[in-house]
Amino acid sequence: MQYLPNILFVIALLAGVGFFVFNIKKLIRNIKLGREEDRSDNKGQRFKNMAKIALGQYKMVVRPVSGIIHVLVYLGFIIINIEVLEIIIDGIFGTHRIFSFLGGFYDFLIGVFEIFALLVLVGVIIFWIRRNILHIKRFLNREMKGWPKLDANLILYFEVVLMLLFLTMNAADLSLQTKGAEHYASAEGIVGAFPVSQFIAPLFENMSVASLILVERAAWWIHILGILVFLNYLYYSKHLHILLAFPNTYFARLKPQGQFDNLEAVTNEVKLMMDPDADPYAMPEEGAEEEVPAKFGASEATDLSWAQLLNAYTCTECGRCTSECPANQTGKKLSPRRIMMATRDRIEDIGKNIDANKGTFKEDGKQLLDDYISREELWACTTCNACVEACPVGINPLSIIMDMRQYLVMEQSAAPTDLNNAMTNIENNAAPWPFNQMDRANWINEN
Amino acid sequence: MAEAIKVPTMAEYMAQGKSPEVLFWVGCAGSFDDRAKKITKAFVKLLAKAEVDFAVLGTEESCTGDPAKRAGNEFLFQMQAVTNIEVLNGYEVKKIVTACPHCFNTIANEYPGLGGNYEVLHHTQFLKALINEGRLTVEGGKFKGKRITFHDPCYLARANRIYEAPRDLLKKLEVELVEMRRCKTKGFCCGAGGAQMFKEPEPGTQDVNIARTEEALETKSEVIAAGCPFCNTMMTDGVKNKEKEDSVQVLDIAEMIASAEDL
């Protein structure tokens, strides 16, 4: 029975990591439901962008208040993960602070973890106040009602509880070491430095060793189980960004923001039309692949590219895009954040549908256009790129809007009437206004 | 105009067996819109003053396809693009300057993939180069010391990272440049982009150009400087809406330089 805790721990660890891997596989499967797009070029530049934007949080600090607090929480998260490694090893082998052989360096590490735990705690409380007490507009848009709001708060509660457990565990451990309790005390004196939890330890002064062990074990177990639960919560939450920010910034577009991709299928068709020698009835050359796209643009999440779907899963709903969107800021229905959230909702629904129907998608009478994203939203965009610029993790909501407009115009001829007139003008007289092309140079001789 | 400035066409150059230093791409607004034509003429005066050997396509120019593409009509865009590229390549054009950031962006970024490779400059970049080369001199003139704000066109600024050329020109005019609350990477759109110029806005609480004009007016500037004919229209409408047209002007930087030089 001596090894029962070790066995229970290993089971919990395997279950936690196993279910996480199961969900990540599903995530990758869903992302790959998108159409292909080549983002394998310029690896050097891509690594640089990932280092600067994801690892370096370069775009976060464009807004200094939330940016700097976010950097603290992010650093805390990364650094405390080193401690999680020790906790896992201790859990498997039943050891106590296995890394303590590092001596003075170990004391330094634990001290740093504690300080970051405190900073994370403070940061998360400020975040909670910003979300729930201060009336910050970007947290109050219509798409933030219900689950997204709860999700955001749950993440903060998780972090508060985890940090408090971590500090309680250390405080109880410090008390046990001070009291010379077996398994905890070391011949070399106190192991670890406790700059923060030393202020919690006095609360435990009058407790017996047995109760202290109970407190320490309870905190230790709930802490590590909490981490495993949190890990598995990611897939269901906007918090997925802590993982996906890295691939997303790596695969982000590198071209100038103003450059919209030219549709290759259209190019082939246009070239054929413009070529006087082309025979429109000619049979395709032997062996030549004739690529006729199923449709132009996107009306469904699976018409988008995998990179756009990765964008959707990466979005953490911070709303920096929406708060800079000229359409949204002037009361239009469009919110670039909602475009990303709706896209994720749809591809998730498609994924669930596939799972429920043994691996094939069963028509559900819905699509991304109209059922998730309305035309009114799409037509309100000025293509100004403010949302793309604002995103701290390289998401491009504009590209989805453009693909969906393409579907509306090229597949359904469903542009607003004014735009149809402008396009007819371009077609007939080479300008969006009804002026004759032969009058184009009239300005030269006008006074 | 005291004396008419000669604006040669590419066809005329071709007939003489010559080619100009640069093609001036006028754009639809610059060709047809009464307000934008003034910008076109001001820029032409500057080109003439700097003795730039330039030409226009005249009736052979047609819409770059920008509004069609942004409206979602890729087919119409590419038809326009390919037609234009055929004309440009036929004249062996190497260098293009335009006063419209939308034309600039489309030709510079979206034409190369369709066979159109040119050196493309926005007119503010071109004017700056002329000054740097000593071909054009600019002194403060009537704008010296005046409070002036610059509105970043989305397709010049964020889309192509050109923030400084227009500001450098304003500095040459020795103005007191005051930035709006949102500028450069965070510049707020005028509301015309993405083919919005050619349609009614969706229902909302305010028009985008009014919001932007309010921001510009907050700077207490005498002139709202622009670098795009569409921004110019939107901001001019905004200023009229706020009944400030008597105290605040909306001017293209080319117009400012031309009028500072009394051209």
UniProtKB/TrEMBL annotation, chain A:
Entry-linked InterPro entries: 4Fe4S_Fe-S-bd, 4Fe4S_Fe_S_CS, HdrC_iron-sulfur_subunit, Helical_ferredxn, NarG-like_sf
UniProt keyword annotations, A-Z: 4Fe-4S, Iron, Iron-sulfur, Membrane, Metal-binding, Oxidoreductase, Transmembrane, Transmembrane helix
UniProt lineage: Bacteria, Pseudomonadati, Bacteroidota, Flavobacteriia, Flavobacteriales
Source organism (scientific name): Leeuwenhoekiella blandensis (strain CECT 7118 / CCUG 51940 / KCTC 22103 / MED217) (Flavobacterium sp. (strain MED217))
Transmembrane feature ranges: 6-24, 67-88, 108-129, 150-169, 218-236
Protein name (Swiss-Prot/TrEMBL): 4Fe-4S ferredoxin-type domain-containing protein
Pfam families per the UniProt record, alphabetical: Fer4_9
GO terms assigned for molecular function: 4 iron, 4 sulfur cluster binding; metal ion binding; oxidoreductase activity
PANTHER family: IRON-SULFUR-BINDING OXIDOREDUCTASE FADF-RELATED (PTHR43255:SF1), IRON-SULFUR-BINDING OXIDOREDUCTASE FADF-RELATED-RELATED (PTHR43255)
Entry annotated with the keyword Transmembrane helix: yes
Family matches, as PROSITE patterns: 4FE4S_FER_1, 4FE4S_FER_2
Keyword Protein biosynthesis: no
4Fe-4S ferredoxin-type domain ranges (all copies): 306-337, 371-401
A single GO cellular-component term on record: plasma membrane
TrEMBL record, chain B:
Keyword Oxidoreductase in record: yes
Domain Cysteine-rich: from-to ranges: 22-107, 148-235
Top-level taxon of the source organism: Bacteria
Keyword flag Iron: yes
Any Gene Ontology CC annotation: plasma membrane
GO molecular function, one term: oxidoreductase activity
InterPro entries: Cys_rich_dom, HdrC_iron-sulfur_subunit
Keywords: 4Fe-4S, Iron, Iron-sulfur, Metal-binding, Oxidoreductase
PANTHER family in the cross-refs: IRON-SULFUR-BINDING OXIDOREDUCTASE FADF-RELATED (PTHR43255:SF1), IRON-SULFUR-BINDING OXIDOREDUCTASE FADF-RELATED-RELATED (PTHR43255)
Protein known as: Putative Fe-S oxidoreductase
Organism: Leeuwenhoekiella blandensis (strain CECT 7118 / CCUG 51940 / KCTC 22103 / MED217)
